[in-house]
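FAQ

Q: What does a record look like?
A: Structure on top, sequence underneath. For example:
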C-alpha cells in the first residue's frame, strides 16, 4: 500500500498547486483553467515513481557504473526521499489490506454500475431519436426524452435535441444552444469527460477527484459560453435560451455527455450578459505554464537519472551456474570491494544484498533455493581498506553498506530483481535484561576507543558496543530478527563464548545460555513489526 499512499499525497499536492495556478489565471479565458484541472486529473494516472523509474532506465549503464556516490547524487537522493518518503511503510496486518481492497472494489463497482445505467438511459434516448434536417458537422437527432440538448457518443458523437424544442425556444435561441453543443464537440469534451470519469472511478475515495470534476464542469461550460458569444451570437438570446432549457428539460446525467446547463447558472448568465470573456494568455503566462509543466515532468525524471548514476555497483561481474554435485558453499569478500561467491543460492544473495534473514525474504520462484551460482565481482580500483583485520567498526559498517548496494545493483541488473519493502507482524526475539540483572557496566563517556564487534565461530568480542548494535549482531548469529528492548543506553566492553550447534564437541553452553549467564541478558520469543523484502519479479541470468 505504501506506493499508493505516496502517489495519493503527491497527486493531492499537485492538485493544490493547480488550484493556486487556476486562481492566478482567473482573469484569463476558461479554457486555460480547464486544461489546468485536466492536468490535475491526469496526474492521478501518472505516479512520480514511474517518471523516476524511466529516468533510471535511461541512465542505466551496466558496463561503466561509477563506484562512489557523488555529492550531487547524494543531494538528489535526499530529494527522492522527500518525493517517496513512505516506501517502507505498509499495514502490519494483512487483513487490513484485504478489508480496504474489498471496500475499494465495492465503491468502484457501485460507481460503474450507476454510470452504466445512466449511459443506457441516454442510449435508449438516442435509439428512439429521428434525424433532423439541420446541416451540421455531426448528425442532429430529435428524441422524445425530456433531456436537455446534449452530445452523446465518444468516437462518433451525435447531438440530441428534445422533440418540440423549437416551440420552446426562438430560432435565435436555438441557434445559440446548438452553437454551444458544437463547441463541446469541437473541443472533444465528451472524450475528456470520459477520461476523468475513469480516474474518478479508480480513485472514488479521494475527495480531490470529486472537486476536480466540479471545476472541470464549470470551466468547460464557461469556455463554451465565451466561444458562443465570441462567434457573434446575441448574449440576450443565448442567456434566455439557457434559462428556458433549464425550465423545461432535465440536465444531462453524465459528464461525458455534455449539455448546455450545469455550473453556476447565475454566474454564467451574468458573465454572458456583461460579455465578460477572459483575456488570452500573455507570452509571460504561457512561459509560466510551460515552465510549470517542464518542472513537474523533469524533476522526478532527473531524480531517477542522477540517482541511478549515483548508485554503487561492481565494475565487472561474472555469473555462471554452479557445477552439479557441489556440496560446499563459499562466500568471500575480496579486499577493495569485490565479491567471490561459489555454489550459493540466489535467495542467500538477496539476504546479503538487503541485510535481512531468510525469514524476511518473501515470495519468489522455487529456483531461488534450488539454483546455485558462482559469482565473481570485481572493482577496477580498490574502494575501501584492503586489510580487514585492521578495520575499525566504522570501516566495517561502511564496507558492508557498499557491498550491499553493489550486490543489489548486481541483482537488479543481471537477475532483473524487483522487490518492495513491507513491515509485517512476525515472530522475533527481544533482547531483555535477565532476572539476575545486567552483568556489565557502561563505559565512561570520555572513552575514545573506536567501537568494534568481532564475531568468530563460537565467540563474540565487543568494544564500546551499544546493546542495539549487539542485537543486530545476534540477528546474524541466531538467524532471526533480534530487537533491543532492554531500554539501557550507553556502551559496553564484553566477551561471550558458546558452542555452535553443529560443533562436533558441543560441550559448552548454547548461545542463549551464554547470553544469560555471561552477560545478564536473555532472548524472549515475541511478535512484532519486522521489515521484510517481498520479491515481485526475478529472472534467471544469462551466463558470462
Amino acid at each position: 500500500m505504501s506506493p499508493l499512499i505516496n502517489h495519493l499525497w503527491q497527486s493531492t499536492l499537485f492538485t493544490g498547486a493547480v488550484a493556486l495556478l487556476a486562481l492566478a489565471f482567473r482573469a484569463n479565458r476558461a479554457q486555460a483553467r480547464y486544461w489546468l484541472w485536466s492536468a490535475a486529473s491526469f496526474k492521478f494516472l501518472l505516479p512520480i515513481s514511474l517518471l523516476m523509474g524511466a529516468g533510471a532506465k535511461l541512465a542505466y549503464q551496466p558496463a561503466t557504473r561509477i563506484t562512489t556516490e557523488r555529492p550531487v547524487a547524494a543531494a538528489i537522493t535526499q530529494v527522492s526521499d522527500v518525493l517517496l518518503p513512505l516506501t517502507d511503510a505498509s499495514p502490519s496486518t494483512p487483513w487490513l489490506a484485504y478489508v480496504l481492497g474489498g471496500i475499494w472494489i465495492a465503491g468502484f463497482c457501485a460507481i460503474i454500475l450507476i454510470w452504466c445505467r445512466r449511459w443506457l438511459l441516454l442510449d435508449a434516448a438516442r435509439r428512439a431519436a429521428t434525424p433532423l434536417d439541420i446541416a451540421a458537422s455531426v448528425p442532429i437527432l430529435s428524441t422524445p426524452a425530456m433531456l436537455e440538448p446534449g452530445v452523446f457518443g465518444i468516437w462518433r458523437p451525435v447531438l440530441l435535441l428534445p422533440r418540440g424544442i423549437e416551440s420552446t425556444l426562438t430560432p435565435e435561441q436555438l441557434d445559440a444552444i446548438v452553437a454551444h453543443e458544437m463547441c463541446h464537440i469541437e473541443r472533444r469534451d465528451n472524450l475528456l469527460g470520459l477520461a476523468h470519469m475513469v480516474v474518478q472511478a479508480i480513485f472514488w475515495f479521494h475527495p480531490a477527484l470529486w472537486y476536480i470534476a466540479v471545476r472541470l464542469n464549470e470551466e468547460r461550460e464557461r469556455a463554451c459560453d465565451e466561444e458562443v458569444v465570441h462567434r457573434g451570437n446575441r448574449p440576450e438570446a443565448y442567456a434566455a435560451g439557457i434559462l428556458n432549457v433549464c425550465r423545461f428539460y432535465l440536465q444531462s446525467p453524465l459528464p461525458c455527455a455534455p449539455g448546455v446547463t450545469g455550473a453556476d447558472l447565475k454566474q454564467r448568465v451574468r458573465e454572458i450578459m456583461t460579455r465578460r470573456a477572459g483575456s488570452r494568455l500573455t507570452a509571460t503566462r504561457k512561459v509560466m505554464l510551460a515552465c510549470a509543466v517542464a518542472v513537474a515532468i523533469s524533476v522526478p525524471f532527473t531524480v531517477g537519472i542522477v540517482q541511478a548514476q549515483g548508485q554503487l555497483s561492481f565494475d565487472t561481474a561474472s555469473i555462471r551456474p554452479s557445477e552439479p554435485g557441489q556440496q560446499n558453499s563459499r562466500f568471500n569478500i575480496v579486499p577493495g570491494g569485490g565479491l567471490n561467491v561459489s555454489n550459493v543460492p540466489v535467495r542467500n544473495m538477496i539476504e546479503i544484498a538487503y541485510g535481512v534473514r531468510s525469514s524476511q525474504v518473501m515470495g519468489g520462484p522455487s529456483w531461488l533455493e534450488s539454483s546455485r551460482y558462482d559469482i565473481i565481482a570485481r572493482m577496477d580500483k580498490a574502494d575501501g581498506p584492503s586489510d580487514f583485520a585492521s578495520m575499525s567498526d566504522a570501516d566495517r559498517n561502511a564496507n558492508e553498506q557498499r557491498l550491499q548496494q553493489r550486490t543489489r545493483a548486481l541483482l537488479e541488473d543481471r537477475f532483473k530483481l524487483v522487490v518492495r519493502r513491507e513491515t509485517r507482524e512476525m515472530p522475533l526475539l527481544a533482547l531483555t535484561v535477565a532476572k539476575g540483572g545486567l552483568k556489565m557496566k557502561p563505559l565512561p563517556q570520555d572513552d575514545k576507543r573506536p567501537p568494534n564487534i568481532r564475531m568468530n565461530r563460537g565467540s563474540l568480542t565487543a568494544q564500546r558496543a551499544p546493546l542495539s548494535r549487539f542485537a543486530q549482531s545476534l540477528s546474524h548469529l541466531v538467524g532471526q530478527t533480534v530487537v533491543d528492548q532492554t531500554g539501557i543506553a550507553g556502551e559496553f566492553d564484553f566477551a561471550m563464548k558458546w558452542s555452535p550447534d553443529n560443533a562436533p564437541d558441543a560441550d559448552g553452553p548454547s548461545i542463549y545460555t551464554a547470553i544469560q549467564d555471561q552477560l545478564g541478558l536473555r532472548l524472549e520469543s515475541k511478535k512484532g513489526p519486522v521489515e521484510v523484502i517481498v520479491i515481485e519479479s526475478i529472472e534467471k541470468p544469462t551466463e558470462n
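Q: Is there anything notable about this one?
A: The mean pLDDT is 80.
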